[in-house]
User: Fold these one by one.
Assistant:
Number 1:
Amino acid sequence: LYYEDWNRQKKPKSLPEEQKLIFGLLFSLKHTVCAMRPGGDGKMTVDGLQSYATSTYRLHYFETATGLRFILITNPNVPSLRECLRQVYSGIYVEYVTKNPLQSLGTPITSTYFAQSLTKYIRGLPYFLST
């Protein structure tokens, strides 16, 4: 519903294709995490997958109880930003999207207040300043 680049060095050739790949990867990882967790009942929970890292990036993941997903891709040296994503949801998304009568849920986010608040928050993170 919303995509933003703040400090990306290499732009994707096809953003929709990249988004499909990330969705497929997250779908597979979530199922793997659920199968491997203690108890191994395979039930999907929102607290299973938090982040994963490769040699070139770290993907941070937060999913709400209603299935809304927040993803942030950073330098691989950045620790988990799950709590930051939770703050994006509770302090920015809820305030500027959920409470906005002009914003239809499930449609691309068009609120300039949301975009400005999100950018200010992300750029204020100490990890953003060091990359």
Number 2:
Amino acid sequence: RHTLHPMGSFSKVAHVDDPKNLFELHGTGSLHLGRIFSGARFDRAMVMFLQCVAALIAHAKRTAVPNLSEPPYRIDEDRIGKGDSMLSIRLQFNQDEVWTRALKYMLTDLKWLLAWHTQHQLLQTGGARPPPA
């Protein structure tokens, strides 16, 4: 559904139906009125990125790896968490501590994806170590 554009500290994401409309995965750091409008774009980009993570997790679950647990946190649209404790990934109108915890949850799921990929590669190569990247 989305296309990532890795550009170092200035990465962007776009919807596949509108690839020219890029959303920035970075902020300006300024505290002026424009932050409200750029913040909405950043929030949209973060939601799109979280949906990319959710799509990767869905793929990983379809190609199961033995002895690998479930991802630690569940993703639902723009929220991530466990059980009833789902946190929004949006920065705007959110408390800094809550947003930071939501990002921590996302990074934990990304770490789980890294473990899945490593195990998947080992299975594909018959137990041999994958070639260095």
